[in-house]
TrEMBL record:
InterPro entries: RNase_T2-like (IPR001568), RNase_T2-like_sf (IPR036430), RNase_T2_His_AS_1 (IPR018188), RNase_T2_His_AS_2 (IPR033130). Belongs to the RNase T2 family. It comes from the Bacteria. GO terms for molecular function: ribonuclease T2 activity; RNA binding. PANTHER family: RIBONUCLEASE T2. It holds the Pfam family Ribonuclease_T2. SUPFAM superfamilies: Ribonuclease Rh-like (SSF55895). This is Uncharacterized protein. GO terms for biological process: RNA catabolic process. It comes from Corallococcus sicarius.
Length: 350
C-alpha cells in the first residue's frame, strides 16, 4: 500500500526527530600506558643516557615517554634505594684535563692539592634493586626529568644559600663556575634522596668527614703525594675495606675514591656498608679491575702539575664548544669565551 505524500512526509519527520534525540554511545576511553620506574639500558633513548664514573646508565625515572619530546604529565618517582656511593675526586688527576675549571685554576696550595674533595653523594640501588630496576641508580626524581637538558629551567637549580660555607673547602666544584657542580649534583642525584638541598649538601660533607684521616683523607694519601702506594694498603687505610672502591686512569694514577653508606631516616646516609656488586664490578673500581689480581697493584698519588692525563685532543665535553684561540671566535658561535683548554666554553670567567 502506498502512503499519501503528506502522510509519508510526516512519518519521516517523526523518525528523524527520534534519531536526533537518541543518546549516543560514548567512545571507549583509551587505556593509559603504565609508566615504569626504570627502563633497561638497551631501550633508553640516547638523550636519557647518563655518564657518571664512566658508566652509561638508563636513569630510573618514570618519565620515559614513547615520544621523547613529550614532557607534560611525565613525573619522575623517587624509588627506594638501599645504598649511597660517596664519590671523591683526587683533584691533581682531574685538573690537568680540565684546566678551564675555576677550581683547577686555584688548585695549587689549596686543600684539594693534598686531600680528597667532593664529587657527589649518589643514591645507589643494591644488587637486588638493580636487578629489578634494570639500572644501578635513580636520577632526576621528583619531576625534574626536564632538567636533563642543557636548557634546564631555573627550578632545576638549588638555592646557593643552602650550600654550607665549608663546601668551598671540601667541594670547590660546588661553589665555582657559577655553582656548576651544585646545580648538577642536586638535580641529578640529590632530587632522589628525599632530602631538601640544604640537608643533601650538609649530609654530603658529613659523610666525607666521617672517613678516616685528616678531614676524610687518610694519612697514607696526604703523606705520599707525588709517590706511589700499594692498592691493598690504600684499601686498608680507609678501614672496612669492602665499603670502598678506587678508580684509576690508564696509567694507574688515582682518579677517584668511592665509599658506600647505608640509608637511614629522612634519606640521610648512615654507617659504611659493603658496596653493592654493581659498584665493585664497575669502572668505579677500575684500580682493581675485573680479574682476580689487581689491574693496578700500585697506585700513583699525583701531585699538582704532575704528569697527569693529557687534555682531550678534541673539544666536546659538556659545556664545551669548538676549538679556539680567541674569545670573539667563541662569542660569534654563542659561547662566552675561549678557555685555557683551547675550547669555547659557556662558563663566564669571574
Amino acid at each position: 500500500m502506498r502512503l499519501p505524500p503528506r502522510l509519508a512526509l510526516c512519518l519521516c519527520l517523526v523518525i528523524a526527530q527520534g534519531c536526533r534525540t537518541r543518546p549516543e554511545t560514548p567512545a571507549a576511553e583509551t587505556p593509559m600506558t603504565p609508566t615504569n620506574t626504570a627502563r633497561p639500558l638497551a631501550q633508553a633513548t640516547p638523550e636519557a643516557l647518563e655518564m657518571e664514573f664512566g658508566r652509561p646508565q638508563a636513569t630510573a625515572c618514570n618519565c620515559f615517554s614513547p615520544n621523547p619530546s613529550a614532557t607534560d604529565g611525565w613525573v619522575c618517582a623517587t624509588p627506594r634505594f638501599g645504598a649511597y656511593l660517596l664519590a671523591l675526586t683526587w683533584a691533581p688527576n682531574f685538573c690537568p684535563g680540565h684546566p678551564d675549571k675555576e677550581q683547577c685554576e686555584k688548585l695549587p696550595g689549596s686543600f684539594g692539592a693534598t686531600h680528597l674533595t667532593l664529587h657527589g653523594l649518589w643514591p645507589q640501588f643494591n644488587d637486588a634493586e638493580a636487578e629489578q630496576q634494570q639500572c644501578t641508580y635513580p636520577a632526576y626524581c621528583g619531576g625534574l626529568c626536564e632538567c636533563r637538558s642543557g636548557a634546564a629551567p631555573a627550578k632545576c637549580f638549588p638555592d646557593p644559600a643552602t650550600i654550607p660555607d665549608t663546601m668551598g673547602t671540601y667541594g670547590p666544584g660546588f661553589v665555582t663556575d657559577n655553582f656548576f657542580l651544585a646545580n648538577h649534583e642536586w638535580t641529578k642525584h640529590g632530587s632522589c634522596t628525599g632530602m631538601d638541598s640544604r640537608s643533601y649538601f650538609s649530609s654530603t660533607i658529613e659523610a666525607l668527614l666521617s672517613l678516616p684521616g685528616d678531614q676524610g683523607t687518610p694519612a697514607l694519601l696526604t703523606d705520599n703525594v707525588g709517590k706511589s702506594v700499594a692498592l691493598d694498603a690504600l684499601r686498608s687505610a680507609f678501614g672496612e675495606s669492602g665499603s670502598v672502591v678506587f678508580r684509576c686512569d690508564d696509567r694507574c694514577n688515582l682518579a677517584e675514591v668511592g665509599a658506600c653508606f647505608g640509608v637511614g631516616a629522612q634519606g640521610k646516609p648512615t654507617t659504611r656498608i659493603p658496596c653493592p656488586r654493581n659498584v665493585t664490578d664497575s669502572s668505579s673500581n677500575s684500580c682493581m679491575g675485573s680479574g682476580s689480581q689487581p689491574r693496578c697493584p700500585t697506585v700513583k698519588v699525583q701531585a699538582v702539575k704532575d704528569d697527569g692525563p693529557t687534555p682531550p685532543a678534541t673539544c666536546g665535553q659538556p659545556g664545551q664548544g669548538p676549538a679556539c684561540t680567541r674569545d670573539d671566535t667563541c662569542r660569534t658561535q654563542g659561547f662566552v669565551r675561549c678557555a685555557k683548554s683551547g675550547c669555547c666554553t659557556t662558563v663566564p670567567k669571574r
